[in-house]
Amino acid sequence: MAPRKLDLTGHRYSALVVAEADPITYPGGSKAARWLCACDCGATVTIVGSKLRSGSTVACGDRGAHRSGKAHPMFGKLREQSGNWRGDAVTYTAAHARVKAEHGPAATWRCACDCGRRAEEWAYLGTDPEPKVSMHSDSEGALYSPDPEHYAPLAKHCHRNFHTWQAQRRTGVPIALVIAEMFAA
Asked: Are residues 114 and 179 both part of a single domain?
């Protein structure tokens, strides 16, 4: 029995809308379904169907267009039209989801501290003049910002060191006591 052919034309996958099929035949004779897609930011890209359906490709890849606010990659709407994107009344988790939606996964970046490692997490830099304080039990007391521009990609080790430094700077407690308290917890 021959495999069923999917027609993805007109389907939306996050910020991408499938316009037409663009099949490819590889040198060995195997075939793949590629699709010409229009991104909400105005770009046109060709993407393999499996990447669309799995959700591993959600936008055109032009981070500048999405970071500038032309399109929200998670919901395929302009930032201003998305209820989830507006305002400062967001939780710690939602703020981090905004950062990932705006800049992509942290693992696609190098650590911002120039240690040479691949980043693993988005870290709040403490640069928002009016930071929020998390009330959730998993992150209680942690500062965060609803604005994705106040975050940087860091490796886990660098993120922990940065938090230790921030805690020491905020409280004036000697770094040795902060570290001892971390290990005691």
From this structure: yes
Secondary element (H or E) of residue 44: strand 44-48
Distance, CA of 12 to CA of 6 (rounded, Å): 14
Residue 43 clears pLDDT 50, i.e. is over it: yes
Look at residues 62, 86, 110 and tell me which one is the last residue of a structural domain.
Answer: 86
CB crowding 157-185: b at 16 or more within 10 Å, else e: ebbeebbeebbbeeeeeeeeebeeeeeee
The residue with tokens 């075939």 is 31
**Given a cut of 70, is residue 73 above it in pLDDT?**
no
Q: Are residues 52 and 119 in the same domain?
A: no
Predicted structure pTM score: 0.48
> Does residue 185 carry a pLDDT above 70?
no
> Does 150 score more than 70 pLDDT?
yes
Please give the tally of structural domains in the chain.
2
CB-side neighbour CA atoms (13 Å) of 135: 4
